[in-house]
Design goal:
By secondary structure, the protein is α/β, with parallel strands linked by helices. It is 35% helix and 21% strand. The protein has one domain: Rossmann fold. Strand 2, helix 2 and strand 3 form a beta-alpha-beta unit.
Length: 161
């Protein structure tokens, strides 16, 4: 059994109109929601990912920085991937399938619509990822290469915690 955590980055700041999308930071709410979500995930769901696959966008990097403090994730556990920022669900799923099998619990921090599409494809759900939303999915596999469907264990959003 493997567990996959899909995370949409926390709320970003749209005040800087000329800023490249890749460089958009978190806003005040995003900076508050991410550590709260991390603490909630640890307390309620005992979340402790073995590795984190994260988008290179600034808002995703800032989200993982705030989550890692609450979830005791070391910098060595984080792998940065441009394709999570620019890719579609199948590209992100390919990254997941390439994960080393020594990892039981994997977290992916990315963007919409990819996170919404991926959770719905993997679980048969019809949910929409708000910012800083987190889905926990159990995959009945021993090899990440076999990841194709699983069970939605939880779906947490900042407004519910």
């Amino acid at each position: 059994m493997k567990r996959l955590y899909l995370v949409r980055h926390a709320k970003s700041d749209w005040r800087f109109f000329g800023l490249d999308d890749l460089d958009r930071p978190l806003n005040k709410r995003g900076k508050k929601d991410a550590p709260r979500m991390g603490k909630h995930l640890k307390r309620v769901w005992q979340v402790k990912p073995d590795c984190v696959l994260c988008s290179t966008a600034k808002r995703a990097r800032s989200t993982v920085k705030r989550l890692r403090k609450a979830l005791d994730i070391s910098k060595k556990q984080i792998a940065w991937h441009d394709s999570i920022y620019s890719g579609q669900k199948n590209e992100v799923l390919d990254l997941i399938r390439q994960t080393d099998n020594c990892h039981r619990d994997v977290m992916v921090i990315g963007h919409n619509p990819t996170m919404t599409d991926l959770v719905n494809q993997l679980t048969g759900s019809f949910i929409f990822f708000p910012t800083c939303g987190v889905a926990g999915i159990d995959l009945p596999i021993d090899d990440w290469a076999d990841a194709k469907s699983g069970t939605l264990v939880f779906f947490e959003v900042p407004k519910s915690i």
